[in-house]
Specification:
Strand order of the largest sheet: 3-5-7-9-11-13-15-17-19-21-23-25-27-29-31
Shape: elongated
Strand content: 15-25%
Length: about 350
Amino acid sequence: MKLKEFLNEKEMETALEIYGEEGLALRKIGINKYKKLDDGSYEVWGDFKGKPNDIPIEIKIFHGNFNCIDYGLENLYGSPEIIDGDFYCSNNELATLEGCPEIVNGSFNCSHNDNLTSLKGGPKIVGRNFDCSNNISLISLERAPEIVKGSFACYKNPNLTSLKGAPKKIGGSFNCYENRGLKTLEGGPKIVGSSYDVSDNNLFNLKGVAEKIGGFFDCYNNNLKNFKEFPKIIGKGINCSYNNLESLEGCPKIVDGNFDCSHNYEHLSSLKGCPKIVGGNFDCSNNNLFTLEGGPEKVGDCFNCSWNNLTSLEGCPEKIYGHFYCSHNKKQFTKEEVESVCEVRGNINV
């Protein structure tokens, strides 16, 4: 509740004497701790929820979370210059980020602004996560911060056709899925500390993909035919299912996680080039394989080669620590046939 809503005229006069006009104005918006700076602006401590232009004085440094979600805002003028916390301006009518803080030490979220076409005017430095997803008019990532220490989200932007301007280094995950107008990764980040998700786009190659990915690499449901360009380092698993892959050449030799190249249907007829050691599951089902030659030598969990055209299990891993699936092939294999070529720790599904 604001002071003027429960103080009478005499009590307001007393409050003005104690706090001063500017101090009282801050208390009216819930800010009780503040300091006046040499340039006349204020440094304040607390959390705020409301419209930036409703703040009656200039705040330069804001220690706390700043929430202006769902106020129908068309711009962000009146925002503090520095936010030592999170800044949320999602679900508005923003056509520009002009007026927003230059520095956000926490997370920045400008998602669900249907009129936003670019990130021009956005913060230069973001200490944690940056989210510009679900903006149906966004066509460019130009003016995004060069470095994001947390995760960067630019998914479900149907008119985004380029990653030019994206951060070059991301400490957390890169979430760039379901952008059906996106045909290239050129201009995207070079280093991603955690997962890299470019699934459900319209990619025909991996040119421009990050060189180093610390987590899972997901390029599911694109139009990829090969891996001529592939990340040099991947920390976890790989999902390249539901593409048009004709070859797995270019894959890393060791994958510390799952590897899924299933559902490339009639296009993928060979496992040549696939990882030799897979720490988790290996799934090559629903392809056009006639042989398992060139496949992995060791699989740390389950192995699935169902729904292919196999007539032989020659080339399958010597040892599988999970379950073995080989049903719905040209030949109906038996459990004994599997056991004759592979040591299976789990169940055998023929």
